[in-house]
Structures are given as structure tokens and as C-alpha cells.
Amino acid sequence: MYHSIVRKRIIGLFDAVGRGDAQPVLDAFAPRFTHMFLGGTALGGARKTLAATKAWYERLYRLLPGISFELGEIRISGAPWNTLAVVDWRESNLGADGVATENFGRHIVHLAWGKMTWLAICPDTVGLKATLDRLAAAGFAEAHAPPIVD
Question: Which of 1, 59, 78, 120 is a good FRET partner for 94, with 20 to 30 A between their CA atoms?
């Protein structure tokens, strides 16, 4: 039963991000957390505060507007005080330049009592870098900005 609740909540968080609303994700973090995105790009790095994480989602929406996710397998294990969830996804967006792109990857989430303590976003970094390089070449300087970290 608990794993079903976690699954439903995860699906809801992906849906919220796809609607351009990161607030439910921000609200899901524990007081102490890490939000990490793999790769050495403008979206890469790790954040440990809500302010930096909110700024990261704002950048995500500017660079990859219309982002949406098709979820694949969702695996959940553990008890409420120590839960691990792994979510495979395929993402599509319109890009700040209006060019439709897709990517795929995996989220790895640790939960303690229903709050995220650790979120690792693991995209295909080669595909993402190509998209960000294209955006930078089209004049979107933020695509090559330093990562938002704290």
C-alpha cells in the first residue's frame, strides 16, 4: 500500500513539472536535501537550498519550455523512513529556439517519511549537451551559463 502511494505521488510530481509548476517538487523536499543533475552543463551540479533549486527549475523552463515526461518503469523499495525510488523517463520539449527535442534518463529519489532527502536526475548528458550547444549558438547565452549550485 505504501509503495502505491509513493508511486502516485511521483507521477503527480512529474505531471506538475510538465505543467510548468515546480512548486509541488519544492514542497516535497525535506528540510535538508540534495537536488543533483548530472553533467557539466548549465543544468548540472548540486543544490541544497530551496532558493537555488527554484532558480534551477526556472532555468529549466526558460531553456526547455513545454517540457513533458513519459514515464517508464517505476521501482520503489524500502520502508517509509528509508525509501528508494527509481524512475525511467523519456522527456520532450520545444527548446527556447522552438526546435522540438527529446531526451531520456532516470531519476533516483531517496525519501524519509514522505519527504525527498536526495534527488539525482540522470539524463543522457550527450543529448542534453547537444541541445544546450544548439541553444547557445542560437543566441540563448544561458544555455552555456555556469551551473546553479550552492
Answer: 120
